[in-house]
Specification:
The complex is a heterodimer of chains A (218) and B (545). By secondary structure, chain A is mostly helical. In chain A, 65% of the residues lie in helices and 1% in strands. The radius of gyration of chain A is 24 Å and the shape is elongated. The termini of chain A are far apart. The radius of gyration of chain B is 23 Å and the shape is globular. Chain B has a single domain (24-543), classed as Cytochrome c oxidase-like, subunit I domain (Cytochrome C Oxidase, Chain A, Up-down Bundle). Classes of the chains: A mainly alpha (218), B mainly alpha (545). Strand 1 (6-7) of chain A pairs antiparallel with strand 1 of chain B, so a sheet runs across the interface. The complex binds protoporphyrin IX containing FE and copper (II) ion.
Chain lengths: 218, 545
């Protein structure tokens, strides 16, 4: 009997690590049917990280397309493609600072200082909004439109897709900030929402740095 | 959001009986069946479209449908079969049903995401099909949607096509995230990775491919839609764009996509063969490594679809060599399956017939694939019926055969009843003969230069085309015994008992059909899912009838 490859509940034969079976017993409900709730924070963060890998691949595809265009499709002479550097550089700094302020918000939250956490979240959200505003100003001051030439189209597609991510991030920050307030959905003990938004924000930040390097500096 | 009792969450959403299959159920088993049934409906629709194609091609002139309609039908056929039948069924269908059992869990890691992923599919499918009626003209540029063709054919249909494929791609990514998290994070305590049934590895590899490559397709199609709607020029040479960039991005997804279609089938067949041959799966470790090698190589061979797109010589060389290398891990798997059968007590039932025919068809498609990877040969037969023959041997002769095999194997699990064997064998015979009759002659057609995707052809090709159409007719007829079998046995079939095949994998160590929580008590710890023969002499002797 001990050579059986299968151990079932009916067999008294214990699994190697004594209590290994316990978390799966339905009576104790330790592993509920719905895994997206309860103590499975790490699984959810893992899922989010996987999603961000996928999202990053979308950007990778765009970057690859952009670089190939640059390499093999030279713009016709006299094309309009000059970018201003000052505003985007300020924007880059804003976004990098916002990653630190978000980190600070997370720290305050875990230390159970929800008020301080909320303030830092508000600052982060404001920085994100400032970035978007800067982006808008840049869009309206550029001398070329979406269909002007291949570079222009790629520029708007890339920055626009990234801006969409920032917008979503700002909305998430607003929601999380509200959740530290009411109903206690984000607390020191249960802060999945905040951590998820933070990871996402850092991701958007890193993508911007790559994008800035490729579009503005290269 | 706090939920005191997980059952509060599940129960109200689960009307008992058949109604739950129409609900936003979170039960992985219900979702699995939803994928299977939904996919099968699209298979019938895609099959009807294939019928239109073969009737049209029975004569060299376009007499049955107009050329434009032919192009629409061809595009819908390819898109439906790939994105609404093969991919959802071998991944979402069997994956959702089996993976939680295999890792010893009560459900997938993210049940709600899982339900969302499924419920994206029916609307996407309806959207796609409705474009034929609503937008005036459905997309006409094939499942590859190459520009500039996709920029010059009717725009509305193409945009709806893009929208639909984006939805289906999103569904596929969500599903993949769920599989990765479930296999890596939800394993029952005590269960090691190297003890998992092979299908888990196949789904892990497939999901990695889906996560890495599907987003690139999504980005590409967004750019393509800009070209159509906003008149940007990413892929429009007249506006300074570059069509070859589209091809690179498209195939960066779509070559991995062929493995998204076939790797799960590898996994399923690796579950089925040991049970019906009463032998352990041969070469477990090499199987695992070859899956991972295929995942890696699958990501770096895409340009073998582009040998005639003006690719520079160094690129041709690299992609020929990389592609040829895929034959190594694929060959390892092939010989492992043969060795699994070798000396086994093989039960010749419907599941096994389809599984063995898979091996046969797949090796043929693999060989034509390696031939296609050689530039001098490919330049001759690219975009001819030879390519159509190649991929149907793999996608239909490989994956669809495995889907049928899996249906006969797991139907007792789903319903508690056995499918009728006589009807099953009839189904197999018709499918096998019809399939080979339909697709074998296409290799000759291609070698002699008949281009693919055309409604009219040189009358010299008539006879072979007619043979192919007769094969298609047989395949159409073959769905009848299958349909009758599935519907009738659901009500009147022989009661299967909990474990009709005496299988050792964990999904069989519970009742059939299983309870909502999968096992009434604790999840079993199955350390040797293929321990047939040597560790379970009692079971081995009672091999299937
Ligand atoms: C044994 C390894 C394989 C090799 C070496 C291989 C090679 C190739 C090559 C070189 C082509 C391009 C032919 C051309 O367009 O001129 C091709 C086309 C294709 N292959 Fe394979 N293949 C293999 C396996 C598979 C598998 C496993 C699948 C699917 C499950 C598959 C599906 C396809 C499809 C769908 C096409 C045609 C795409 C299109 O143009 O519409 N192949 N294959
Ligand atoms: Cu390929």
């Amino acid at each position: 009997m001990t050579t059986s490859p299968v151990q079932t509940a009916s067999e008294p034969n214990p699994s190697p690590s004594g209590q290994a079976n316990a978390p799966l017993s339905i009576e104790t409900s330790e592993l509920p049917l719905d895994h997206s709730h309860g103590a499975h924070l790490d699984v959810r963060m893992f899922g989010l990280a996987t999603f961000l890998v996928a999202d990053g691949m979308t950007f990778a595809g765009f970057f690859a397309a952009y670089l190939t265009f640059r390499a093999v499709n030279p713009l016709p002479p006299g094309s309009n493609y000059e970018l201003e550097l000052i505003l985007p550089t300020i924007n880059t700094v804003i976004l990098i600072i916002s990653s630190f302020t978000f980190h600070r918000a997370g720290k305050e939250c875990r230390a159970d200082r929800l008020g301080a956490s909320r303030v830092w979240l508000a600052i982060t959200g404001a920085l994100g909004a400032a970035f978007l505003a800067g982006q808008m100003v840049e869009y309206f001051s550029l001398p070329f439109g979406l269909t002007e030439n291949l570079f222009a189209s790629t520029f708007y597609a890339l920055t626009g897709f990234h801006g969409l991510h920032v917008t979503l991030g700002v909305i998430c920050i607003a929601i999380v900030a509200l959740q530290t307030h009411r109903g206690g959905q984000v607390t020191a003990a249960n802060h999945f929402g905040l951590e998820a938004a933070e990871l996402y924000w850092h991701f958007v930040d890193v993508i911007w740095v790559v994008l800035f390097g490729l579009l503005y500096l290269l | 959001m706090t939920i005191a009792n997980p059952n509060d969450f599940n129960e109200p959403l689960q009307p008992s009986g058949w109604l739950r299959y129409f609900s936003f159920s979170l039960d992985h088993k219900v979702i699995g069946i939803q994928y299977l049934v939904c996919g099968f409906i699209f298979y019938l629709i895609g099959g009807a479209l294939a019928g239109v194609i073969r009737v049209e091609l029975a004569s060299p002139i376009s007499d049955f449908v107009s050329r434009d309609t032919y192009n629409e039908v061809l595009t819908l056929h390819g898109t439906i079969m790939i994105f609404l039948w093969i991919v959802p069924v071998v991944n979402g269908g069997f994956g959702n049903y089996l993976i939680p059992f295999y890792v010893g869990a009560r459900d997938m890691a993210f049940p709600r995401l899982n339900a969302v992923a499924f419920w994206m599919i029916p609307p996407a499918g309806m959207l796609l099909i409705s474009s034929y009626f609503l937008a005036g003209a459905a997309a006409q540029s094939g499942w590859t949607a190459y520009p500039p063709l996709s920029l010059t054919t009717p725009a509305a249909g193409q945009v709806v096509w893009i929208l639909s494929v984006l939805l289906l791609g999103g569904s596929s990514i969500f599903g993949a995230i769920n599989f990765i998290a479930t296999v890596l994070k939800l394993r029952r305590p005590g269960l090691k990775l190297m003890q998992l049934p092979m299908y888990c590895w196949a789904m892990l590899g497939t999901s990695i491919l889906a996560v890495l490559s599907t987003p690139v397709l999504a980005g590409t199609l967004i750019l393509l839609s800009f070209d159509i709607i906003a008149h940007t020029g990413f892929f429009n040479p007249t506006l300074g764009g570059n069509v070859v960039v589209y091809q690179h991005l498209f195939w960066f997804y779509s070559h991995p996509a062929v493995y998204i279609m076939v790797l799960p089938a590898f996994g399923l067949v690796s579950e089925i063969l040991p049970v019906h041959a009463r032998k352990p799966l041969f070469g477990y470790v090499t199987m695992v490594y070859s899956i991972m090698a295929i995942v890696f190589l699958g990501l770096i061979v895409w340009a073998h679809h582009m040998f005639t797109s003006g690719t520079p010589p160094w690129m041709r060389l690299f992609f020929t060599i990389a592609t040829s290398f895929i034959a190594v891990p694929t060959g390892i798997k092939f010989f492992n399956w043969l060795a699994t059968l070798w000396g086994g007590r093989i039960a010749i039932n419907s599941a096994m017939l389809f599984a063995c025919a898979f091996i046969l068809n797949f090796v043929f498609g693999g060989i034509t694939g390696v031939a296609l990877a050689q530039v001098p040969f490919d330049i001759h037969v690219h975009d001819t019926y030879f390519v159509v023959g190649h991929f149907h041997y793999i996608v239909y002769g490989g994956t669809v055969f495995v889907i049928f095999s899996s249906l006969y194997h797991w139907y007792p699990k789903f319903t508690g009843r056995l499918l009728n064997e006589d009807l099953g064998r009839l189904h197999f015979l018709l499918t096998f003969i019809g399939f080979n009759l339909c697709f074998l002659p296409q290799h000759w057609l291609g070698l002699n230069g008949m281009p693919r995707r055309v409604a009219e052809y040189d009358p010299a090709f008539t006879t072979l085309n007619q043979i192919s159409s007769v094969g298609a007719l047989l395949m159409a007829i073959s769905t009848l015994p299958l349909l009758i079998n599935v519907v009738v046995t659901a009500f009147k079939g022989e009661i299967a008992g909990d474990n009709p095949w005496n299988a050792l994998t964990p999904e069989w160590l519970t009742s059939s059909p299983p309870p909502v929580e999968n096992w009434p008590g604790e999840a079993p710890l199955v350390k040797e899912p293929y321990g047939y023969g040597h560790t379970e002499p009692a079971l081995a002797q009672e091999a299937t009838p």
